[in-house]
Amino acid sequence: MRNNDVRIVDALQRFAVELPSWGFANTGTRFGKFLQPAAAVTIEEKFSDAGHVHALTGACPTLALHVLWDVPDGAGGAAEIDRLSALYGVRAGSINPNLFQDQQYKFGSFGNPEAAVRAAARQHVVDSIALARALRCRDVSLWFADGSNYPGTANIRQRRAWFVENLRASHAALGPDQRLLVEYKPFEPAFYHTDIADWGMALLLARAAGPQARVLVDTGHHYLSQNVEQIVAWLLAEGLLGGFHFNDRRYADDDLTLGSIDPYQVFRIFHEIQLFEYETGGPADIAYMIDQSHNLKGKIEAMIQTVAMAQALYAKAALVDYDRLLRAQRQADLVRAEACLQDAFATDVRPAIRDWRAARGLPADPLEAFREGGYLQKITAARATRAASPSSYA
Ligand code: RM4
Ligand code: MN
Ligand code: MN
Predict the structure, then answer these.
(1) By C-alpha distance, which of 338, 300, 225, 313 is closest to 50?
(2) What is the pLDDT of residue 385?
(3) Per-residue confidence at 394, pLDDT binned at 50, 70, 90?
(4) How confident is the model over 186-222, as pLDDT tens digits?
């Protein structure tokens, strides 16, 4: 038991997860948005909410920014972001260019048949890299809506070549410490083919882009029966796992709170990572990020719930007895090997997590502290005075 407590504390000490600025804003589905009076509209409100989540959990020192929604002036907006970081106690994290909302991207960005649009998309990424550098952010995270809706309407190989060309040019703009993360998604908004549809395509494109490119795994961006932890294990082995967008889902890219549907899958992902670290003797260089869109749950509540869930599942994964596991695997002792995972997953880590929080001056139950703390009432009143504006994406 003591040994377990030490492992849990150790795990919590090294685990940090990035919050998405868009997770505090009004979002919804394509059928509509249910506006929340306390939802953040301005970048200052997003920083304030993120700072509050970090103050309650101690696990979220950075905030992911979407360039178009948060810093439309690009590098010119860096000073304001720096001011907000200092004021609210969270740093800018990954920088996310927007290559899907502008009208010119109707038929794609990096894969658009028009050279001028491809050039505009490339320029936006280069500008985003400059913004990231001005903010001392390491990761520029690329997600493409590019694809087609009907067979025969797009030249798949030609578009792939255009992607390689633009990714290489983007990579060339990186500073020595920066990284380019390439995210994949099987479908939506494109419903016939998506240019970067899976981890294999993302891996090949990251390799083609250059040595500072990595793959980003969004847990919701897979077909239902896909073994996500195997993908994680392969990317680790190839040295190409750059980061995660965490969320959960029941059907497709549902963007539900992490672990709400299948906590064992998240545990298995964390297990693959921590086993890799145990076997290689060093930390895996991975950016853990949340990418959720809360349509019905309260924005801040949902975010705290996800952070607490991520901490608990990461801590559980740290309890796997590796010596026992590896021995059982070598001996093909299936039941014992499987039990190593099941025992760790079944362990109640909550008391140790509460102790860890108390020792750091954090509330033992961040969700309860949020409900009782008055922040929500305060921002609801303050934000009611300005017109609610549905921001971000549906
Ligand atoms: C996508 C993907 C990206 C996110 C956009 C808005 O489904 O998950 O990471 O930036 O949504
Ligand atoms: Mn994502
Ligand atoms: Mn998504």
Answers:
(1) 300
(2) 83
(3) very low
(4) 999 999 999 999 999 999 999 999 999 999 999 999 9
- CA 64 to chain centroid: 8
Within 6 A (CB) of ligand 1 lie 96, 143, 183, 185, 218, 245, 253, 291, 393
Atom 5 of ligand 1, nearest CA residue: 143
What distance in Å separates the CA atoms of residue 28 and residue 41, rounded to the nearest whole number? 14
**Partner residues linked to 17 by β-bridges:** none
b/e 235-259 (16+ beta carbons within 10 angstroms → b): bbeeebbbbbbbbbbeeebbbbbbb
Which residue's CA lies nearest to atom 7 of ligand 1? 253
Angstrom distances, CA of residue 154 to CA of 54, 150, 157, 192, 233: 45, 8, 9, 10, 33
Q: Name the closest-CA residue to atom 4, ligand 1.
A: 143
Q: Is the pLDDT of residue 386 over 80?
A: no
* Closest by Cα among 106, 179, 190, 101 to 140: 179
Whether the per-residue pLDDT at 387 is higher than 70: the answer is no
Q: How far apart are the CA of 199 and the centre of ligand 3, in A?
A: 14
Rg (C-alpha) for the chain, rounded Å, is 21
Cis previous bond, 189, omega within 30: yes
pLDDT over threshold 80, residue 393: no
Backbone angles phi, psi at 194, to 5 degrees: -115, 135
Specify whether the CB–CB gap between 301 and 23 falls below 8 A. Answer: no
Q: Which residues have C-beta within 8 Å of that of residue 271, sequence separation ≥ 6?
A: 229, 317, 320, 341, 344
Alpha helix (H) residue ranges in the chain: 2-14, 43-57, 67-70, 78-88, 115-134, 156-172, 199-209, 228-237, 263-280, 299-317, 322-330, 334-346, 350-359, 366-373, 375-384
3-state secondary structure 109-155: CCCCCCHHHHHHHHHHHHHHHHHHHHCCCCEEEECCCCEECCCCCCC
Is residue 70's pLDDT more than 70?
A: yes
